[in-house]
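Dear Dr. K.,

Following up on our conversation at the group meeting, I've run the structure prediction for GNAT family N-acetyltransferase from Bradyrhizobium brasilense. I'm pasting the input sequence below exactly as I used it, so you can double-check it against your construct before we proceed with anything downstream. Let me know if the numbering doesn't match what you have in your notebook.
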Amino acid sequence: MSRFEMPLGGGLLAVAYYKIEDGRVVLLHTEVPQELSGQGYGSRLAHGVFEALRSRGKRVIAKCPFMSFYASRHSEYGALLDG
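The predicted structure tokens came back this morning:
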């Protein structure tokens, strides 16, 4: 399993775990430190992940509920999604 990381300062990270399956990026799980939950860091991470994947021309399967919800609320990323 691999992950995208977003440093938050103080040694804290927000992370999005993924794997590659049949050439597609499968987003599995997103984590933001509990003490920073609800402050928009997950959305900033999701934006960065989807932008990186779009710039690389990748297809995405969003198994992570947070990433799936984020993509559903941002139509510019809908074209990336498979499944």
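Two things stood out to me. Helices lie at 41-55, 65-73. The two ends are 20 Å apart (CA to CA).

Best regards,
J.T.
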